[in-house]
Design a protein that fits this description.
Elements lengths: L3 E6 L2 H9 L8 E4 L7 E4 L1 H4 L9 H7 L4 E3 L3 H16 L5 E5 L2 E5 L7 H16 L3 E6 L2 H7 L8 E3 L5 H7 L10 H9 L5 H4 L4 H8 L1 H9 L16 E12 L2 H19 L7 E10 L4 E7 L5 H14 L5 E10 L2 H9 L1
Parallel strand pairs: 2-4, 7-8
Antiparallel strand pairs: 1-6, 1-7, 2-3, 5-6, 9-12, 10-11, 10-12
């Protein structure tokens, strides 16, 4: 039986800053946002009570919470703690698929101990050795494990066993499915669809007719079907980061601050791949109607000005449609391609 665990650190950057400076504990803290035009990288739970959240412009966060304490990002510190956590994962399995500095999938199917007990022990070791907390989801597949990891946050876990998947998905709010944001949730609700069980009433043909290719994917997702494997040793062809906005952004200028914040995170990630050569830079936009476009340019370094050009190009293709998701990324050259060139 498959035992997939999704580990998600609780307000990772903010939790580390509170550990480093205990005077911050119990106070609303936002990490990032070097200027009023910047955006928050994350906010702790005290700040979230006021409505502050990641990717929110600093000026708006301060309007919601004037006493918000802003702390600059320290990615070198966060990477060090992430490496500690990765080492803890390695005590239990080699089948680790990192998603970012603060979350990962673990395949524990080869171990006889229950997934819940293993997740609890992993979380205990993280707390004891790093001083910060993690939440976990345990399930037969990656999608449900990721949803379940958010069930008992912070510092909790939730398990969905194989014989519980049908009941779990039937009552799951439709907005918890990957790719279904606020606007789409509202559209579904206008159709009388509030849960995955409601969506399960449509057959594949009807889903394809109503939602196109994405409808076929939705047909599986709303039933808890996810056949993806945890992929620990794949050669990275690219690195990227994405942000699905809580509210669609209708202006190009509104996209720039979150993009530059995401590029800081991308630059931090890139340090781990310093031996790889960059082939191109990429900007992806998904619009409110779920159409998407990708702008790409061959360039050998992470250059903010190039990303500005790509963002404008992608925006123009959308003909002023509101944007629900922004992604920025880097594609690497194939290591084999470099090797072949050296042998010539």
């Amino acid at each position: 039986m498959r035992k997939i665990v999704h580990i998600d650190m609780d307000c990772f950057y903010a939790a580390i800053e509170e550990r480093e400076n205990p005077a911050l504990r119990g106070k609303p803290v936002g990490v990032g946002g070097r200027t009023m035009r910047g955006v928050l990288t994350t906010a702790n739970y005290e700040a979230r009570k006021y409505g502050c959240r990641s990717a929110m412009p600093v000026f708006k966060a301060l309007q919601l919470c004037p006493q918000l304490i802003l702390v600059p990002t320290r990615f070198e510190l966060y990477r060090g703690v992430s490496a500690q956590i990765r080492a803890i994962f390695g005590r239990f399995t080699e089948r680790i698929e990192p998603l970012s500095l603060d979350e990962a999938y673990l395949d524990l199917s080869h171990l006889n101990t229950s997934g819940a007990a293993l997740a609890r022990e992993i979380r205990n070791q993280i707390r004891e050795e790093t001083g910060i907390t993690a939440s976990a989801g345990i399930a037969p597949n990656k999608m449900i494990a990721k949803i379940a990891s958010d069930w008992n946050k912070p510092d909790g876990q939730h398990e969905v066993r194989e014989d519980q998947v049908e009941a779990f998905m039937k009552d799951l709010p439709i907005g918890r499915i990957w790719g279904v944001g606020g606007k789409m949730t509202a559209k579904f609700q206008g159709m009388g669809i509030h849960s995955c069980g409601d969506l399960q009433q449509f057959d594949k043909l009807e889903m394809a007719r109503r939602f196109g290719k994405w409808g076929l994917e939705l047909w599986e997702l709303c039933r808890g079907i996810d056949t993806r494997e945890v992929q620990p040793h794949r050669i990275r062809k690219s690195i990227s980061t994405e942000n699905t906005f809580r509210e669609n952004l209708s202006c190009l200028e509104d996209l720039r601050p979150p993009m530059h914040s995401m590029l800081d995170e991308l630059a931090s990630d890139l340090v781990r791949y310093e031996e790889r050569e960059i082939r191109s830079l990429v900007v992806k936009l998904k619009f409110a109607d779920f159409t998407r476009t990708t702008a790409e340019k061959a360039h050998g370094v992470l250059d903010h000005s190039i990303f500005e050009e790509l963002l404008a190009e992608a925006w123009q293709r959308g003909e002023n449609k509101p944007v629900r998701l922004l992604g920025v990324g880097i594609r690497f050259k194939d290591p084999q391609e470099r090797l072949q060139m050296e042998l010539l």
